[in-house]
C-alpha cells in the first residue's frame, strides 16, 4: 500500500501511547511504547522492559524491533513505518537505521522528555560528537588487524 491516511496514523500512534501506559501499569519499565507497521498492518509491538528484564537496552523501539524481526524471521524491516510514543533516543534511532525502516512517527519529542526526566541520554548525544578518544568514556582500538581479518573472512564467505 502506498502511504497511509491520517486516520491510520492516528490509530497506530494511539496504540504506541497505549503501550507506553501499559509499560508502567504492568511494572515493566518507563512509559514508552512502539508499533511497527508494514502495508498498514502492525507487524510488531513493544514497550519499555528495562525494569522487568534488568536490561537497560530494552527500550520500546528495541522491543518492537525484536518482536517484529522474530515474527517475520528476518533481520531487515525495510519499508516499515515506526510509531513511537516518544522520539527515539540515539540507540533506538541507530537500530531503526539498521533495520532499514522508511519513516518514523513520534508523539512527544525527546527534548521534552529529557526536560521532564532529567535523563543523561542528552549528555550522551553531545558526548558522541567528540572523537572516540576524547569522550567521557574514551575508546581505544586494540588488535585492529586481527579483528578486521575475521570480518573480511566472514564477508568473503557471504559472497
Ligand atoms: Zn531508545
From TrEMBL:
GO terms for molecular function: guanosine deaminase activity; zinc ion binding. GO terms for biological process: purine nucleoside catabolic process. It comes from the Eukaryota. Signal peptide: none annotated. CDD domains: nucleoside_deaminase. The keyword Chloroplast does not apply. This is Uncharacterized protein LOC106154581. PROSITE patterns: CYT_DCMP_DEAMINASES_1 (PS00903), CYT_DCMP_DEAMINASES_2 (PS51747). Keywords: Metal-binding, Zinc. Residues 7-121 form the CMP/dCMP-type deaminase domain. The keyword Secreted does not apply. InterPro entries: APOBEC/CMP_deaminase_Zn-bd (IPR016192), CMP_dCMP_dom (IPR002125), Cytidine_deaminase-like (IPR016193). It holds the Pfam family dCMP_cyt_deam_1.
